[in-house]
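ok so heres the complex, two chains, lmk if somethin looks off
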Amino acid sequence: MSVAPIRDELPAGETRAEAAPAARGGPWRETVLTGWGRTSRATSLAARPERQSALRSALQQAEGSTVLAYGAGRSYGDAALNDGGHALLTERLDRLVSFDSETGELVAEPGVTFKTVMEVLLPRGWMVPVTPGTAFATLGGAVANDVHGKNQESAGNFGDHLNWIELLTADGSIVRASPAENAELFRATVGGIGLTGVVTSLSLNLARVPGNAAAVTLKRLPDLDSVIEGLTTPHPGTPYSVAWIDALSGGRNLGRGILELAAPSDTPLPEKAARAKALPLDLPGFVLSGPTVRAFNELYWRRIPAGGAQRTVPWRDFLYPLDAIHQWNRMYGKAGFHQFQCVVPMPGAPAAIRMLLEALGRAGRASFLAVLKAMGRPGLGHLSFAQPGLTLAVDIPNRPGVEALLAELERLTLDAGGRVYLAKDSALSPQGFRAMYPRLPEFREALATWDPQGRFDSDMARRLRIREDLGREEQL
Amino acid sequence: MTGPREVWVVLGATSAVAKAFAREMAPGADLLLCGRDADDLERQAADIRVRHGGRASFLSFDALDYGRHEDLVRQTLGFAAGARINLFLAFGDMPEQAAMDRDFDLARRAIETNYVGAVSVLSRFAPALEAQRAGSVVVVGSVAGDRGRLKNYVYGSAKAGLHAYVQGYRARMHRAGVHVMTVKPGFMDTAMTWHLGKLPMAMQPAAFASGVAKAVRARRDVVYAPWPWLGIMTIIRAVPERVFKRTNI
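and the predicted structre for the whole thing:
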């Protein structure tokens, strides 16, 4: 692709302030994209198609270079990045193509966000069956990461609720895949971090809900054992469960936290427009130093009375607490942060979680709240993250020495038979990845069929060497 | 709302600003989307139905196919079934100036799409609009039509012609109680400008659409979007020709 300065043909006479070079005549703009943690960044030639035909022609025009779809940029690490290659931004492909109010089947384009689906269909008594912790994520991204939510034990993962997906594949054709049709492509695409193609539409079954609110029960728990007990005790009446734990307290307080159990509420709440505040600037590093975070965590824990609390809140307040602050990722300053999320299987999970928290404590990493929850069902994709057990997610500010800590967390996860979530990752080793994702050979077989030339590629795929065989001496 | 909902006919409905405008009006009106990419229009109409539950349909429309514009009026009146119609003209064509300098056919296509096509559509809808004695017509012009510039004068001249035509059309429609508004967009953050890189004050289509909707309610005659372009173009228009001809803008 020749990159030449473009000719001015603007409607009026202003000079461009910071026009980037773009491929002449093509739909490209040189763009710096980052992961949500802002530690990974990539410079790509990006197209932002506004219709399906423009998406197809962009893929065609990217001939000879690698390509990757980029949605809302909510993957934390390098999963959605393709440095030096082409990026296909899906944000303007945001149509709701059909909705069946009898069955709850929604057909949508990949750039539709969870926020849109909830705003349009929750008032009609339908909601997404599975949602990640931010409503700003796109449905296309949810396929690529086979995301899960706070109801993972009962509802499984995003991919479990798909009837079919349509995919723009490497040869330019649109292929429909489902559990019954092109099943191998389906299993490779769900959780396949964008490496099989670009989702052009998908069919998703929504869930019926009686109202717009969740009935939430909050419990303040003194230590890790009680939190884990709370999460793993069957709670059939409250399909949603999550625990916020104080990752900074040590000793007897280690893992103290707040358990939230929730169910759809029959009591509707008056509709209020969400008013989000934005974090207007990068916070300086000292704001998130040890003592401040310790104090915050103490307050956060004590906000729930010892006897617990019951609340009825709008779904978005329960499902997407951080969405209330736009660009909360700036909280960690310019240097950004890593998010580490792993899942470890029972019965060793409690001990493994304790070791992970202790390792974080030893490293003295001032982390905000950590999130712990139980998982019940494996994902259907070859590279799906979920497996039964406990999953821990924690933010780690990007400071010197963070690589060693992440490597230690990787090793502890591996020793416990667990795996790291690719949607959050920017540090996993190719060897660790292979041990954690045993279905990689099946995934690669699908790639060999659908994208033999490796047109779809990403910084993550190159880092994990997904398309390569590791040499004998490189193996674990 | 009492009585039949009003109808907005969007011509050139696959552009980002037209899509945004259709979504903006959909809660209170039925939509008829007209353009060339039927697959895209079908999706857009479906999106409006899912989001807002109103009627939304699409028609194949080519600004250059003048012979079929009478048909378009007939089909529109059929769709409206007695409801009041409003027009939003968003079709256009902006090839590179240098390419049009080399190739008259390109220049002619741009002039015909931006000017002749609009005249054809507006003149054929005029009797129906005059008969209903109400409604609004929004014509998307361009700040490029405010002054001929070295970098974009074929496109600019077609839009200038359109502006003048719409001024007269506005006077004619005023007598029938029909509101006619010229919108002059500056930089829009759309596929048309994407490859140019980040532009100063580039406006999001949704913000454009809500601004236009507000101006329609206020029955404005001419609006710039975003509004600072009024000042910019006032200055650009004030530069004496003997100076202006030396500039590169």
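quick notes: The longest helix of chain B spans residues 104-132. thats all i got rn
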